[in-house]
Predict the 3D structure of the following.
Amino acid sequence: MNLLVLIGAPLLTALAVLAARNRQQVRWISLAGSLVQLGLAVALLLAYRHERALQQTAQMLFEQQYPLFKSFNIGFHIGVDGISVAMILLTSFVVVAGVLVSWNVEKMTKEFYFLLLLLGLGAYGFFISLDLFVLFFFLEISVIPKYLLIGIWGSGKKEYSANKLALMLMGGSALILVGMLGLYFYAGNTFDILALSKSTIPGEIQHILFPLLFVGFGVFTALFPLHTWVPDGHSSAPTAGSMFLAGISMKLGGYGCLRIATYLLPEGAKEYATIIIVLSSIAILYGAFATMMQKDLKYINAYSSVSHVGFSLLGIGMLTQTAITGALMQMVSHGVMTALFFAVIGMIYDRTHTRMVADMGGLMKKLPFISTVFFLVGLCSLGLPGLSGFVAEMTVFVGSWENPDTFHRIATIAAAMSIVVTAVYILRAVGRTVMGPVTNPEHLELKDAAWNEKLAAILLLAGILAIGIAPGWLNDLLQPAAEEIMNRIAGK
Amino acid sequence: MPNAINIALIPLLPFAGFLLSGLFGRKYIRNFAGMLGTALILGSAILALYTAYDYFFVYGKVDGVYQQFVPLKITWLAFTKELSIDMGLVIDPISVMMLVVVTFVSLMVHIYSLGYLKGEERFATYYAYLGLFTFSMLGLVLASNIFQIYIFWELVGVSSFLLIGFYYDKPSAVAASKKAFIVTRFADLGFLIGILILSYFSGTLDFQELIARLTSPESNEAKAAAASTFLGASALTWGAALVFMGGAGKSAMFPLHIWLPDAMEGPTPVSALIHAATMVVAGVYLVARLFPVFALSTPAVLEMIGWVGAVSAIVAAVIACTQTDIKRVLAYSTMSQIGYMMFALGVSKYGGEAGLGYTASMFHLFTHAMFKALLFLGAGAVIHYVHSNEMKDMGGLRKKMPVTHFTFLIACLSIAGVPFLSGFYSKEEILLAAYHSNTAIYYIALVTSGLTAFYMFRLYFNIFWNKPYEAHGGHHGHGEGGLVMMLPLILLAIGAAGAGYIPFGELVSSDGKALESHFDIAFSAAPVLLGLTGIAVAAWMYLKENKKPENMASSLGGIYKAAYHKFYIDELYLFITKKVLFNLVGRTAAWFDRTIVDGLVNLTGNTTVLVAEGIKKFQSGKVQQYAIYFLAGVVLLAAFFVYVWR
Amino acid sequence: MMEPGLYHILTVSIALFFIGVMGFLTRRNLITMLMSLELILNSVNLNFIAFNKYVWPGKMDGLFFTIFIIAIAAAEAAVAIAIIINLYRSNQSIDVTNAEDLKY
């Protein structure tokens, strides 16, 4: 399979959207394009599994390489392993759902869809890049549209949030850039990830470069205490924006933390593992407790994202194969789940015109479909077996427990405690919005989900269930890649 | 040999019911959903009975010992090569016994609900939930892997949540469902950590392997687990105790019992199924499943289990004597009876005659499921009739509801331990086991059995005798409820009366070998007499309407009040959650995030702005000012290089 | 007649330089300021020539630099006067305070 189609399809769609003549065309072109992307992602998964079944043991499959700047040894090098395939699949799910829930955007529809597709393009490119330079390029592509999406189509104090988000993410990018250049010069003038992974970088250099890269990508994935763009950004962003932000952008960071910081700088990772674990355990518990007190649905999900993404970072910090697999699963699972969560919150907001928990009640009566989905995604968030969150969290726990010392044990128990707190805040939110008596008589006039919303919700729910009921395929996809990373960390 | 397909169908049939009613119930098969669910569960029940017959009488016994079979095992999620979550089916005496209990009671409840919930708007949803619950419970029972049991454990938790909160527009139901879920979730946290500890040391999640490795003192795994200590106890002890914590939460053991009485907000048939007969005994089942580990490797934890069970039994019995909501009385009674099962396991040993407690516990689980489900369904019929849960609205119903009255009486006699009914046999065995092992627990149990007889007959007399029945407003055109509601009562009554004659010791024992059950008139005299006394006292106080109960209550004063308020345990929990967790921790975290962490971020931004404002002043646009800065700069630099740098 | 030495020339150049600086800093008229600037440049030229003659008489570097500076000064004057004329067109004045708007 030629990976260039993964960049080509969104690019063509975006250009076609620009050429479209009216809103109707824009929407349908976007939907068709995103469905093509979904098809491509699924085809990629199948092709990948097929190749692996044929005992293809290369670390990266479908590799392609074109020189970009010969003199600097920069090349357009792409290829995928299990992690990338999983992330691409996640991206394509979120893109389709994002296009569907934005069906009724009135203001500057064409530009909105264009930016949305551009974001998707950035994510696809990021996940297939094997050259740090190209990867960084795609990372930046996925930051700038976010600024515009929030600034133009947002709500509330959108300018403030857009600024904050863009500045914090740019700050992260700056750190990444410095770290990248450090890698380039200390590892024999190359940006190629595969070449870098074979090189040995002196310990004292890793000591400096690792925090730059990890914190840089950490900003993207809400590393405590650099997570504060998350609540503001999400609460101001339009629905699809929130979905992309939490479902895809935060995963760019997690992917980078693992693939670049940890994989390329194993000594640094070992050295800083303790700090990562402490920070992520804090994020998990503290995020959960902070969620408990939120009154706005979007803030609830934003803070709970901080808590959930903490599991990914915890898994990375634990440095065992199972924990890293769990961390990756959590990224995928959280991506689908949180996208659905924001989608449902958007649907509720479109109808009730409020996101305040206190202003709602008994939505189940008039919005059975939306309420059921809301409830299911809440259950996924609190880690109910059969839904994706459980699988990911348990893998992280089991992997963390493989470290035999007391420190890791206590961190794991602290993280595990969040499953109770999560249950508290999810049930509070669910209990006060969809259950209970109808508090606002106007809510008796509401209409349940339209076809596009139903389709988006069912698509993402299918993703959640596919991971939750039969996690084997995802595990098979991620585990060999995690093993590869562990081999380098263990120095094999 | 067990037939994997037959056994797998037992849980899968209700699951099919869940899917069909859940997906299509609202629109397409609205009224048909009840019949569909019932038909499917009937299939399950028949398969379960067939499996039980096949296992106990055809292939199960090899050389006089009941074997454990695992006819099916599928790897669901492999963490590492050794450690994986498998979805398996395990067939051994306790799982087969539980299959029969769960499917039978579930069938009764399915049938009963056809009448009880007739006309309910979300009828199909209700049956979907019932199907989900039955599936999860059967999956739990059949689990061959400790993580599999955890998975289904959580699923029964959520189906219990759904069913308690079935009347979702009632705030009290929503609150109760949340409470049930969160309290058990808290216990499950312990369970999860316990699993992590046990699996780490044994290197497996499979029950058979895990038990084999942890119980043989020579194995490396057991040695490592015993050697590693934390806070003075071995890791193995911690693991076992934490696993028990999960069981205690689900089985409503003191002090994690607070959710059970509130859970009575759900529809009454649900209480009968989940909160009396099946889900709440999951904790007992879990301890029984891991019994060799508890008994052979961590006797300290087993003793703790005994005491937790005994304390729960007596505390719940005392509280039950003061409650006025009939479902709450039954809820506390359930808790007390589960306490019996728990301490029966706690006083038991592994193998041979000393394993009597194990057999007794399972026996009591079986008989209790019959008579407690009957009690709840009977109470449901009464509530259906008078539209109230309160005792004061009842009385004199024996004429109006003869079938309910008669079956209820059988259940009361059975639970009170009156000879020749099922409760008598199982309770005697428990008392006998306790007597031989732990005298203190034996006396607690004895007192509890007297109290049990008292509160059950307090309930009985208050409902069916006491004052003549008068309708409290409202109409009462309907009778007891049609055949669909009476049939389960009658069937369960037969079970409650006759279950005691099953030679349980021969079928279920801690090591699979047959156990002689023997009865001693002399030994039985004390509990039976106590039980009869309890009944007599209850009759004296409640047979006719009189002032004795009030006088008694006021003369007991503080004790009565404390028991009436459930010893203020709810208030304690409320204090911890509302005041400490929400206000102290949650509020602080939220404030800290917005003010300190985000404050720092904003501070960075604001500082940049401030500095920029300051620097901006230098760019005045006055060319000559620039020239002066420039000149001054040149002079300063020159001075620096001339005098300082050299 | 006494041949003027290096110090004489340097004295004149310093005087020119500071006269130029003073004029540049104090005058408000842009033309005058431009003239002051030319004074400063010429003082520099003087320095170059003097040092070339007295310190490294065999070399031509100082002369080249001077010619460079004269050429650039001519170009600069042309540009500056063009700006000044434009400023006059828009403001009807060549006062330097009017040019403050240029910072925006």
Q: What stands out?
A: Chain B touches chain A through 53 residues (CB under 8 Å). Residues 229 and 380 of chain B are 50 Å apart (CA to CA).
